[in-house]
Amino acid sequence: MITFDSVTKTYPGQRRAALDNVSVHVDKDEFVFLVGASGSGKSTFLRLVLRETRPTSGHVLIDGREINKLPGFRVPALRRQIGTVFQDFRLLSNKTVYDNVAFALQVIGKPRSHVRQTVPEVLEMVGLEGKGDRLPDELSGGEQQRVAIARAFVNKPMILIADEPTGNLDPTTSVGIMKLLDRINRTGTTVVMATHDVGIVDQMRKRVIELSGGRVVRDEARGVYGYQH
Length: 229
Ligand SMILES: Nc1ncnc2c1ncn2[C@@H]1O[C@H](COP(=O)(O)OP(=O)(O)OP(=O)(O)O)[C@@H](O)[C@H]1O
Fold this sequence. Notes:
- By secondary structure, this protein is of the alpha/beta class.
- Helices cover 32% and strands 24% of the residues.
- The strands form two sheets. Strands 6-7-8-3-9-10 form a six-stranded mixed sheet, with helices on both faces. The protein has a four-stranded antiparallel sheet with strand order 2-1-4-5, with helices on one face.
- α3 runs parallel beside α5 and α5 runs parallel beside α6.
- Adenosine-5'-triphosphate binds next to α1.
- One of its GO terms (molecular function) is ATP binding.
């Protein structure tokens, strides 16, 4: 589903590569934790998957296609296939829970009947049934992250990218969020999650890819967090 083939990314004006000759393959059914100290290249990896930035050399393939060869007008279609969840939720504060999720379908032109059927189903899946009329600031942090996950998943993307999704949540709430991401993974969505959350990584025992100074220094099938920071 995701292939990095000898990918190096050096940002303009930087001497050191943010990613240095990274080759990694992630299959469709996988759940992968991306770990490493601050500045090790995790966000750069995720940005390359989204084609928010391009490699200096090497190839990034999504579902078998070299995404850096895609013409610009095809990039929105690529991004539609990739849901994103962030530490700071990034909800529209003036829209209700329902509208935050519906908006993701409306902007890609889904018919109203589809929106009306799908949004309640997804809100129920993430455990927010009955809360569709609330505004984001009337929800707990964990509930807000559930809205963000519902919005990322409502379009049934091939890939879900999560950048520190539990970074603002307490441990118990984080476990609930991880259960949800695991459930989404089991529906066939590839999940790649960058995290510093030792407890979560050690508990989930999923594949762990560790970056250090832009290089892959560890890639374990059922790994633990494993490095001191
Ligand atoms: N837009 C940019 N321009 C120049 N250098 C950048 C840019 N973005 C990132 N870098 C550099 O690239 C390296 C990797 O950064 P990146 O953000 O990928 O790390 P990270 O592992 O995601 O860190 P964190 O855990 O703090 O989010 C760092 O040295 C960073 O300073």
